[in-house]
Write a structure and sequence with these properties.
- There is one protein chain.
- The chain is α+β, with helices and mostly antiparallel strands.
- The chain has 4 domains: 130 residues, no CATH class; 99 residues, Taq DNA Polymerase, Chain T, domain 4 (Up-down Bundle); 98 residues, Alpha-Beta Plaits; 120 residues, 5' to 3' exonuclease, C-terminal subdomain (DNA polymerase, domain 1).
- It contains 20 helices and 14 strands.
- A hairpin with a 2-residue loop joins strand 13 and strand 14.
- One of its GO terms (biological process) is double-strand break repair.
- Keywords: DNA replication, Exonuclease, Hydrolase, Nuclease.
Length: 516
């Protein structure tokens, strides 16, 4: 059973109406649309009785208000995300949807009222396009489940100690400034920098910094960190420290905390499929770029811990499983793939094995990487050939696909006359592996979400590429859920494979400091 759900207008009582249309799995309507005076009540009733797969225009638009009303659903088909995947497969990237996905907005404040029959028709067209392609069907299901997880994690929030973060900011920056003033520590550093140069210099201005060094006979090709570090000058450590504090102040300072931390929970906006490889992005809050300096502020609730788990050496293992290279698959059956490959091809040198494998994945063909690649190709020819064929396809301007069928973007219109073939080859070489790694992670996330829905002790609070964080009162069950989900994802994508996808699992009271 599929239930198409389209939000309607807001009534005088503040409720939002809804239209529900039941269809078969292929999208053929089974009855006439039914109008409901209250969307929240309708979804709650239908979900509790039937647990259908909801079909709606966009999870980012429809689901957050439901979550705020205490309603969660098991499954959905996200029309918008599916449109993007199917469109890319025929060379028609979808423009970013104008959706609201910020839980600070009111109920459907910016959601347009859509025609339910039009939504149902697009769903039927999508199902017809997917047809009997089981892999593509799995990709669509995983992408939609990821969208549910994203909305739920924003709603739940990542436990965050505002007190600890204020203490961190005050320790490093000084008291919170007022108006347009900069923090005291930054002002002090700016004064010291100007004193060293003998005149007022704005440490945030690359032009002024370059001119200041130039007046002292030092020519700077750039003010980037690695150029400055090569210079023996008393201003350099001051400039680097000022830059570090400026980044903390602008990126994760008091204003950031005012905007994104509510109720001692960090509530960013996740964007599933925000990267062409299927990786997530974030819109505001910097969810996927939590710097180490502030991870000590991510503190579990009393009686809880974080179960932090990440997949080790994920992309090389994906390559081994995708390519079917028996020797690499055997190496990937161990906890340390690099060590086994090092033993197989590089005389036991793990570091060289890592450089060679990453060179294969990212197209490094110069210097030491080139010589190591030759050795790797001799020992693991099938795996190396797999990505090299993807690179050659990209160089020809072709489109490549992941294991489940996510397509890379087509080349730009001027590619054949002015495009960089080698650059596109490097992109497609990595795309086939990285996109498949994203699919494995999405399948893990979907299965983990299902398991945690039945566990009153745990909740999913963070996901980033190949890492998940469970906030739980029972770290043993939380770790067991993650490991079971990883095994499930592996079976879904690769069946009964010898390739292992080990998870590094640790229980921590804070995100940045382990306790066990």
């Amino acid at each position: 059973m599929r239930v198409v759900l389209v939000p309607g207008s807001t009534t005088s009582t503040g409720a939002v109406t809804a239209t529900v249309l039941r269809t078969d799995p292929g999208g053929t309507p089974l009855a006439d649309p039914v109008e409901y005076p209250d969307l929240i009540a309708a979804v709650r009733t239908i979900e509790e009785a039937e647990h259908p797969r909801w079909v709606w225009p966009s999870t980012a638009t429809v689901y957050p208000p439901l979550l705020r009303a205490g309603v969660r659903v098991q499954r959905c088909h996200d029309i918008s995300l599916t449109r993007a995947i199917l469109g890319m497969r025929v060379g028609k990237p979808s423009p970013p949807a104008e959706e609201f996905d910020d839980d600070r907005l009111g109920l459907f404040d910016t959601a347009p009222v859509l025609d339910p029959l039009a939504v149902a028709t697009e769903f039927a067209d999508q199902r017809a396009t997917i047809g009997t392609d089981a892999r593509l069907d799995l990709l669509i299901a995983a992408e939609s489940a990821g969208a549910l997880s994203a909305a739920e994690m924003t709603h739940t929030g990542l436990p965050f100690s505002t007190q600890k973060h204020r203490e961190l900011l005050e320790e490093r920056l000084g008291p919170r400034p007022t108006g347009y003033d900069l923090p005291a520590r930054m002002q002090e550093l700016a004064a010291q920098i100007s004193e060293v140069f003998g005149r007022t210099v704005n440490p945030s201005s690359s032009v002024e910094i370059t001119e200041a060094f130039g007046r002292q006979g030092i020519e700077l090709p750039s003010t980037r960190k690695w150029f400055l570090q090569e210079i023996d000058h008393p201003a350099v450590p001051l400039l680097l420290r000022h830059r570090e504090l400026a980044k903390l102040y602008s990126t994760n300072g008091w204003q950031w905390m005012d905007s994104w931390v509510r109720g001692d929970r960090f509530r960013p906006i996740y964007v599933p499929g925000g990267v062409v490889s299927g990786r997530w992005a974030s819109r505001g809050g910097g969810a996927l770029q939590i710097p180490k300096t502030m991870r000590s502020s991510v503190v579990a609730d009393p009686g809880h811990v974080f179960v932090v788990a990440d997949a080790g050496q994920l992309e090389p293992r994906i390559l081994a499983a995708m390519s079917g290279d028996r020797r690499m698959m055997a190496a990937a059956g161990d906890d340390d793939l690099y060590a086994l490959v090092g033993a197989e091809a590089f005389g036991g040198d793990r570091a060289k094995a890592k450089v060679a494998i990453l060179g294969v994945l990212y197209g490094a063909t110069a210097g030491e990487a080139k010589a190591l690649l030759i050795l790797l190709r001799k020992r693991f020819p099938v795996a190396v050939e797999y990505v090299e064929q993807a690179a050659k396809a990209g160089e020809r301007g072709e489109v490549v696909k992941s294991l489940l069928g996510r397509a890379c973007p087509p080349p730009s219109p001027d590619f054949y006359s002015h495009g960089d073939a080698h650059a596109r080859g490097r992109f497609t070489r990595n795309f086939v592996v990285q996109a498949t790694a994203s699919e494995w992670a999405l399948c893990l996330l979907a299965d983990l979400r299902r398991r945690l829905a039945e566990d009153p002790d745990g909740e999913l609070v963070f996901f980033q590429h190949d890492e998940v964080v469970v906030h739980t009162r029972n770290p043993e069950s939380g770790a067991a859920h993650v490991l079971a989900a990883a095994a499930s994802a592996t079976r879904l994508l690769f069946g009964d494979t010898v390739v292992r996808f080990p998870m590094d699992v640790a229980a921590r009271e804070t995100y940045g400091k382990g306790t066990s």
